[in-house]
Amino acid sequence: MLSAGLIMAIGAQNMFVLRQGLKREHVWPIVMFCAAADAMLIVAGVNGLGALLSAVPGLSTALSLGGAAFLIWYGYGALRRSMTSSSLVVDRQAGISLTAALASTAAFTFLNPHVYIDTVMLMGTIGASIPADGRPWFVLGAASASFAWFASLGFGARFLAPLFARPITWRMLDLLIAVMMAALAFSLLQGAFVD
């Protein structure tokens, strides 16, 4: 339940998975990458990586700055897409390669400082407090919730396809993505310079 609650917050990674699901492009590899990354980070957190990350000065700031730069770049691309009509219809969209899709997924995953706070530090701390014989069940449950969410988001997006058959809906989604990326980037920058 903890994993499900944390992962369902709509952020940059979830918006990317949703967009790729709507385009029906590389959905399975993206879903698997997201779920595997979460599982890996949860295992690392349960095994003490959270304490190590807290002890490294400047790491949070570096992650925040890198994440903000990536979000600004991606948000700018979404804003540009929202202002054009030629690239909005799914059937006519030029797809991205699997390598580019996985690179974007990795950036959304690992350049987001919140993923470390949620999976490594918060879930890791809770998982580490569980008796050793219960930790594998905690990790399995958390990883299962992550996989279920990403699979639902990626593959469930096709049920929204009739709505997204209209170019205006794509424009609205891309505009929402641009605004969300800008807000998240601002939040990261603010956190990097305030802390």
Structure write-up:
The protein is mainly alpha-helical and 195 residues long. Helices cover 76% and strands 0% of the residues. It has 9 helices and no strands. The longest helix has 28 residues, at 167-194. The protein is globular, with a radius of gyration of 17 Å. It starts with a helix and ends with a helix. 36% of the residues are buried. The model has no long low-confidence stretch (mean pLDDT 81).
Question: What class would the helix/strand composition place it in?
Answer: mainly alpha
Shape: globular
- Separate helix tally: 9
Radius of gyration based on Cα positions? 17 Å
What's a concise summary of this model?
The chain is an all-alpha fold.
Keywords:
195 residues; mainly alpha
List the SSEs and their pairings.
Layout (H helix, E strand, L loop, with lengths): L1 H6 L4 H12 L3 H20 L2 H7 L3 H24 L15 H13 L2 H16 L6 H22 L10 H28 L1
